[in-house]
Design brief:
binds beta-D-fucopyranose; alpha/beta
Amino acid sequence: MSKLKQEPKNKTLKFPKEFLWGTATAAHQIEGININSDWWHWEEIGVIKHKSGQACDSYQRYLDDHEIIEKINNNAYRFSIEWARIEPVCGHFDREVMQHYLAVVADLKKRGIKIMLTLHHFTNPEWFANKGGWTSIKSAWYFKRYVTFVAENLGGLVDFWVTINEPEVYADMCYHKAVWPPQEKNNKKALRTYLNMALAHRLVYNFLHKKLKNPQVGFAMNVISFASYRKHRLLELLYVHLADRFFNHSFYDLTKNKHDFLGINYYFRVRLKQRDDSWLPETEGITEGERDKSDVGWVIYPHGIFDVLMDLSDFNLPIYITENGVAAQDDRKREKFIVDHLVEIYHALKAGVDVRGYFHWSLLDNFEWEKGFEAKFGLVDVDLKNFKRTIKPSGELYAKIAKNNAVLGEMRELFE
Ligand code: FCB
């Protein structure tokens, strides 16, 4: 009998040449004092329990952040610019703020770091929120006007444009779960938000393609690996199909042929189970038996990233993992998380999926929305009193991976 041929665990997994190694952040989560945004307002009146305050003070300390990015051998960085700062009053664009972002971008360029710029990452100018936010028929038009100003100033300097971050999460958290501003349970508004965001993406995609030479434009989707609770239940398999179509695919359907790459944020798997008392699915409280969870209760399931990559490879477009990370006080957990997920990405590459880069969420421990500062997603610890940054062991590990463009055998032996 021939021996079973298995890859040794100590094999180093080399990534393709020119692979992008980066991290991702968002303006409101790191910059601080974002006073003209809807989030700030809701934090101030106490509806959101936590206050972002100075956050990581990155608006002032962006050079410190860039230094770390260089130190951990990254060749790319995904971050967002804040619409509420750039257009604090409807139709009034702040040139000083734009000068600031120009300096941020220029410094990254100087360091040879590729720029993935997010134009909308959950927060809005307050004036925009007061006009109905993304439920308004004019929302896409307002967004395009803001992007026009951005493109006039930063146009040639941006390598990748992410128009909107996680439209389905945004619509769900604002108008379905009603946790984020304006905390309104209204499914019609959730749908309108989703459709307006798709329209905004299409408009901005066309505009950037008209205005710039060969821009790379996409958006970042939170892609979930869905699974049935019991494989033999046809109904549960149907839930999986429908959930996948709706959550993972529908925004792509609404924006057909308007993406130059796919941006995938992957965090967890969700299992769908038929309720005991009806034909409807439930997701809560059924995953306790799973192996491992993050500090915020998300099921850690590295193989899921392979699944979603295979699923979305049908688009035949370059794919960037625009976010992937774990909330963990225990940094060892993050180290294992990184290695395990990169091994799965490697397998997807071997299976022919065109993955071009990986952006770990996040560079810094930061303001994690309604969860405040307790959820630690960073490769770098930030002392919230003096804003001193300290690279964690997971950051050192990531630096080594980026430097070698590979997951080394020794890492796999330790963490896989
Ligand atoms: C993603 C968000 C990002 C951060 C991570 C943990 O859904 O895009 O801002 O909150 O989750």
